[in-house]
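pinging the channel bc i need a second pair of eyes. not urgent but kinda urgent?? the chain im working w is below, pasted from the shared doc
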Amino acid sequence: MIADLHNHTKLCNHAEGEISEYIEQAIKCGIHYFGFSEHAPMDFDEQYRIGFHQMQAYEQSILEAKKKYAKEIEIFLGYEVDYLKGHMDERVLNANVDYLIGSVHFIEEWGFDNPEFIGNYQNQDIDAIWQKYFDTIEEMAKSRLFDIVAHLDLIKIFKYMPKKEINAIAKNALLAIKESDMSVEINVAGFRKPIGEAYPSVSLLQEIKKLDIPITFASDAHKPEQVGLYSKETTEMAKQLGFTQCAIYRDRKREFINF
């Protein structure tokens, strides 16, 4: 991956390693554009994200790393923001960053990707769960608050797959993403989960290509050694699907680079 915009730090309480270790691993992997997008503070599920009191320190540490490694790699500053009505905060949404990644980890406050709450899949109609998820992605896109869509089909994480055709379930969400001029990341974290494949699926990526929605790349690393994993396979997959450019962001403005 020439660009890798979605990575974390130990400040989120469920990652490990120093910022420098992530960057040095990215350099080893041949990544040219590397971004941190820490789980943004929010008054919900606070144990899995930084606190508001840590925002300044987080931002400053990334900016310092940007200067330190300027001759070797370009570093970007962002946040991954949970789209959850009533809980998003203007301090995050108006932060002076390169980009904001919008993500959906909750369906009506159910943390569907958290193994602690996996039992909820047994109590609901799986097609209805998937539709609620993509309806929330659609809402997120229509909010026009974010630049990049995180792990588009994260709902597949535990391999609870719908009976209905997935592209049909996701259709309106994809149209909203297109209308909102967002990019979609190809996120390799799915290879580290039970589903065993990237987010989004090849089938969804084919629709994304048809709609001419831009892509970018993401390790979604929570450990330094996860940076750059599956990068060759992912880049080759993107090329086979017809993608030739990926998006990067500086000061909330998108640019394209060839890969």
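so Strands lie at 3-4, 33-39, 74-82, 99-103, 148-149, 183-187, 215-218, 245-250, 253-258. and The chain has a mean pLDDT of 97. — does that match what u expected or am i reading it wrong
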